[in-house]
Amino acid sequence: MDTHIAILDDHPILVQGLKMMLEHEKEFNIVATFLNGNDIINFMKNRRVDIVLLDVTLPDKDGIELCREIKFQFPECHIIMLSNHTERSIIVKCMQNGANGYLLKNISVSDLLQSIKEVMAGNIVFCNDTKKIISKIISNQPIEPINLTKREKQIIQLLAQGKTSNSIAQELFLSPLTVDTYRKNLLQKFQVKNSTELVSLAIQKNIIEE
User: Fold this and answer.
1) What's the pLDDT score for residue 40?
2) What pLDDT shows up at residue 79?
3) How high is the pLDDT of residue 145?
4) What is the DSSP code string of 46-80?
5) How are beta strands 28-34 and 51-54 bridged, if at all?
6) What is the DSSP letter of 31?
7) Taking CA 196 as the corner, what is the angle to CA 194 and CA 198, rounded to the nearest 5 degrees?
8) Are strands 3-8 and 78-83 parallel, antiparallel or unpaired?
9) How far is CA 115 from each of CA 112, 177, 203, rounded to the nearest angstrom?
10) Three-state SS for 185?
11) Of these four, 87, 110, 119, 201, which has the most CB atoms within 10 Å of its CB?
12) What are 79's strand-pairing partners?
C-alpha cells in the first residue's frame, strides 16, 4: 500500500524539492503540499494522510502546536518534524506533542527516505545530531517512578535514539527476540501501545526533561 505524504513548510523551493524527490519512490504518494498551517486540518478531514513532514516555524501557526492538533484529531497519522532548530526544548516539546521523529533539514536524501519507512514501521526517527541531544537528555535523567532494570534503561535510551530492534540487538550483543521481549515489557510497564508512545510518555513523566 502506498504511503500518503503531506508536506508543510513555508519555503516553496524546499517544498518543491521534497515533492520531486519523494515522488521518485514508487511507494510514496504526495497527496498535498502546504506553505502555511491553516489548510492542512481541513484537508485531512477528507483525505487520507499517513505522514506529515512538518516544519517547526510557520508564518501563520506554531508548528509544534500544530503537531499536537494533528495528532489529537488524527491519531493514526505519523508526523516527522523537519526543521533547522536544534534546541533541545523544541525537540522535547515536539515529542511531547506526539511527533514520531525530528530531523534537521541538512539530512541526506537516503536518510530521509529511510526515516519515512522507519516511522511507518512504528519506529521513532532522529537524525544523528538530534540523536545525540536526545541521548544526552535521557542518560542524565533518573528513570522514575517506574521501576526499570539497568538493561531496560539501556533499551529505552536506544529506542529514543530511533534505533530498531535489530540494531539494538547488535549494539548490546543480544538476540533480536530478546530485545523485542524487553521492548514489550517496557510497553506493558508504561501501559502504551508502541515505541513512539513510550518515548512520549517518558518525556511527559520528566524522564526526559524539557
Assistant:
1) 92
2) 96
3) 55
4) HS--SEEEE-SB-SSSBHHHHHHHHHHH-TT-EEE
5) unpaired
6) E
7) 70
8) unpaired
9) 5, 23, 21
10) helix
11) 119
12) 52
Per-residue DSSP letters for 120-183? HTT--EE-HHHHHHHHHHHHTS---SS---HHHHHHHHHHHTT--HHHHHHHHT--HHHHHHHH
User: How many other CB atoms are found less than 10 A from the CB of residue 51?
Assistant: 24
Residue 130 corresponds to which cell in the numbers above?
538530534
Q: Which amino acid is at 170?
A: Q
Amino acid at residue number 174: L
Find the length of the chain: 210
- Supply 179's cell numbers: 530485545
Cell of 106: 541538512
pTM: 0.69
Q: Which three cell numbers mark 55?
A: 516544519
Q: Which three cell numbers stand for residue 31?
A: 497527496
Cβ partners under 8 Å of residue 99, min gap 6 = 54, 67, 71, 79, 80, 81
For residue 5, pLDDT over 90 is answered with: yes
